[in-house]
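Batch manifest, entry 17 of 40.
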Amino acid sequence: MRKTPVTPVQVTGTVLTTRRVDAYHALTVVAPGIAERFRPGHFVAVAVGGARTSSLTRRVFFVHDVKPDYGGTVEFVFTVRGPGTEWLAERRARDTLDLVGPLGRPFPLPRDPVGCVLAGGEYGSAALFPLADALQRRGCRVDFVLGAASADRVFGALRARRMGETTTLTTEDGSVGMRGKVTDVLPGVIADVRADAVYACGPMAMLRGVTAVAVEFDIPVQVAVEERMACGTGVCMTCVLPVIGDDGVTRMVRSCVEGPVFRGERVRFDDVGTIPFDALGAPGGGSRHAG
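Output type: structure tokens
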């Protein structure tokens, strides 16, 4: 059963540090109200462009790290994809940012100590490190599988090696670790460490493959989806996904509110970006399943 979501807060946070991590940028922001409410898997929505900007929508980022410094800080990681993230990349220490968070539903944690494989793709791996901390505090074994297209896009390799019992890296160009994708090596890791569960965050194609592997091994899989979110609060409906409910009915649910963490086997990855004909309320189809 999912816990009741925490109440998010809006804060004006001061940038404490900025750093480059290979292909990515990381910003640490003083945000006590958000830090104290944070659970692994939560994300923040950040206003971009400054007070006079024409950028109306926020940008959302998974939280990579939370520390008690200055009453509470949060760090998030991103890559430059457009004007909004380009503006964020230009922020410096002592600048201020408008943040809302923590948002979304976090990763559920196992009640008992179990073996967990954490699979991350590109900077989606950032969300897995606070999760690893929480799992280890519960006595769980943690093994990492991290991958990306190239070495500079694999996030957190050194930290994973410090934290995990084992860490397996993959790159599509073979520049570090095994040549290939996360899903190429995941079956071997699960078998070798006799994993009881899989947690994953990264591009949708990777999550689809990770879910297929976990289903093959008949172990639970929790995925944090990286759907594009414009508001982060469930208003705009840009991040809807087809997800199968406990009653077997497919519904179009909002990643930012009902997610971003879902049971992987419940997400209809083949139908992402569409409204399946049998989804509840779908034109000419799903409405007949209501009840």
